[in-house]
Structure formats: C-alpha cells, structure tokens
UniProtKB/TrEMBL annotation:
Keywords of this entry: Nucleus, Ribosome biogenesis
Protein name: Ribosome biogenesis protein BRX1 homolog
Species whose genome carries this gene: Acyrthosiphon pisum
Annotated GO CC locations: nucleolus
Ranges of residues in domain Brix: 46-235
SMART domains referenced in this protein's UniProt entry, alphabetically: Brix
InterPro entries with a match to the protein in the record: Brix (IPR007109), BRX1 (IPR026532)
PANTHER family: RIBOSOME BIOGENESIS PROTEIN BRIX, RIBOSOME BIOGENESIS PROTEIN BRX1 HOMOLOG
Length: 311
C-alpha cells in the first residue's frame, strides 16, 4: 500500500502575518488606577444598604430580612450600636459603595422606627412602623421568583401633596430594581403597592398570577407613618413635619388613662346603684301624694293618665 502524504502544507508569509494581527496580546501588568471595563447595559448603579441597630426585636429582624429578599440590589451590614451618632451611617454607606440606606431603629423591644436616606447628600425621612406582619406570620399562598423586578404601584394621593411626591421618588429609587442588574432576574411577577390612608402609607406585596390581572398577596405587610423629612442625610433642616403624629409612648399612656376612667366610672355607677336599692323602701308611693294639700280630683286624674301612658 502506498504511504499517505503526512506532510502539511506550509503556510505562506501573508497568512502568518494575518494571524499575528488577529491575536490580541494583553499586558502582563495593569495599573491600579486604571478603571476596570464593565458591561454597559447596567447603567443604574443604585445600591441599598439595609441594616438595623441593636435592640430590635425578632419580628423587626424578620421584617428586615424580608425586605432584603425583595431587593436584589440590597446589601446587609452588622448591627449598629445605639450610642453611636447617625452620621456614622453615611460612612458605612460609603464603605459599602451604597448610595441609599434603610435603617431599622428599635426602641424598648416594641417600637420600630425606619429611616430612608439618600447618602450622603440627602434627603432623609423618618417613619414610625405600625401593624407589622412578616411573610412567615401571614402564611399566604402567593409566591414569586427571588430577584425578580417588581412593578411599583402608587395611589393618586401621591400627586396631591408635595411631601408625598418626594416620598414616591424615594420609594422608586430604593425599591425599583435596576435593569440588567447582575443579581436580578429578567421577570416581572410581583407588584409593590403603596397607598395613602389616614395620613399613613400602607405597604403591600402581590404576586401576578396570570395575564388577566389576577393577583395574590405574598407579604410582608406594614404601615409607615411619616414623622419628619430632613434636608440632609440624617441631619439638616426639617423640610416637613407631620402634625398628626403621636408618639407610641403617648398613645399607650392615653389608652391606660381611658381604662382608668372606665374603672372609676364603673365604681361610681355601682355605688349609685347600691344607694338607690337602699332608698327604695323609703320612697313615697304616688297614690299617697293625692291626699296632700291641693285639689284631690286633679291629682287623681293626673295619676290615672300617667299609669295609662305607662301601659
């Protein structure tokens, strides 16, 4: 059998030059101040730092974890000491490369205050959180994909007052997941609803079941009562203050006072009832009043008419 020709064809000089031009030789050393090339799709660089102070209860901690799950662009941090000044939060945001912040500030293991801040320039908003129900407590049937981009739904009341317009813009920047975020999913299957009622903002999370618009609540749910809006981040001039805000300690004291008044009223009524029962045998019958001074016939007619009305 004839041997196969195993000699390869030698490449011409022009082909070798073309191959060398197509190859890109990377530098062995890169300068430290040289910016790293990143994808151009991810333009919105919003990052939210979510953490709490020492002293929050287990329910407040579970609510914080639920909000971190809702926001794929959120970062967590260690608990902050309550003795430290709130200006430290701006430094923490800078170290974590975050420009938004949600701070959970717990008091007396029962009251929860929530801060929304745009670090480091401001503004910042302080809320009192009421009617907290975490996702684990509700045990609802709804479910959504983790990391999906939510639709934000706002009530018409956000357009009527300037303070609510500012709150809406803050909620859009914090709860709106950036497009093409690395940790987000390219699906839209839940709705975050913000509605104003009784000078409070009611938060609800719903799952989109089908294309017809059917929804089911997922959780968590809570109510935000705005207290103050500051010009800076955790500082500065007060832009707006809620005139209808009453502190939780004052509301508890008022409820206690109402219970105390109720007890005193019950005590007075019982005493009056006892005195009435004691004086009942000594009361004069209306028939005996006929024989007193005056016209007897007219008094008798008056007594008879009174008895007829009673029957």
């Amino acid at each position: 059998m004839a041997k196969k020709n195993l000699k390869r064809k030698q490449k011409t000089q022009t082909e070798v030059v073309k191959e060398d031009e197509s190859k890109v030789i990377l530098p062995l050393v890169r300068r430290s101040d040289e910016p790293v090339i990143k994808k151009a799709k991810w333009i919105n660089r919003e990052r939210v730092l979510v953490f709490g102070t020492r002293g929050i209860s287990f329910q407040h901690r579970h609510l914080m974890k639920d909000i971190i799950k809702l926001l794929p662009h959120a970062k967590s941090a260690n608990k902050m000491e309550r003795k430290e000044n709130l200006f430290v939060v701006n430094e923490m945001c800078k170290m974590s490369h975050c420009n938004k912040c949600i701070l959970f500030d717990g008091r007396l293991q029962r009251d929860l205050y929530m801060w929304f801040s745009n670090s480091p320039d401001g503004p910042s908003i302080k809320f009192n959180v009421e009617s907290i129900f975490t996702s684990a407590e509700l045990k609802l049937t709804g479910n959504c994909l983790k990391g999906s981009r939510p639709l934000l739904s706002f009530d018409n009341s956000f357009d009527e007052h300037p303070q609510y317009s500012l709150l809406r813009e803050m909620f859009v920047q914090i709860f709106g997941v950036p497009d093409h975020h690395p940790k987000s999913q390219p699906f839209v299957d839940n709705v975050l609803n913000f509605s104003v009622l009784d000078n409070r903002i009611w938060f609800r999370n719903y799952q989109i079941l089908d294309e017809n618009g059917a929804i089911a609540e997922i959780g968590p749910r809570f109510v935000l009562q705005p207290i103050r809006i500051f010009k800076g981040s955790f500082c500065g001039e007060t832009l707006w203050e809620n005139p209808f805000y009453v502190t939780p300690a004052k509301t508890r004291r008022l409820l206690k006072d109402n219970k105390k008044d109720k007890y005193t009223n019950n005590k007075i009524q019982r005493k009056a009832k006892k005195t009435k029962e004691l004086l009942a045998p000594f009361r004069v019958k209306p028939e005996n009043e006929i024989f007193r001074d005056g016209n007897v016939k007219e008094k008798a007619k008056h007594v008879i008419a009174k008895n007829k009305k009673a029957f």
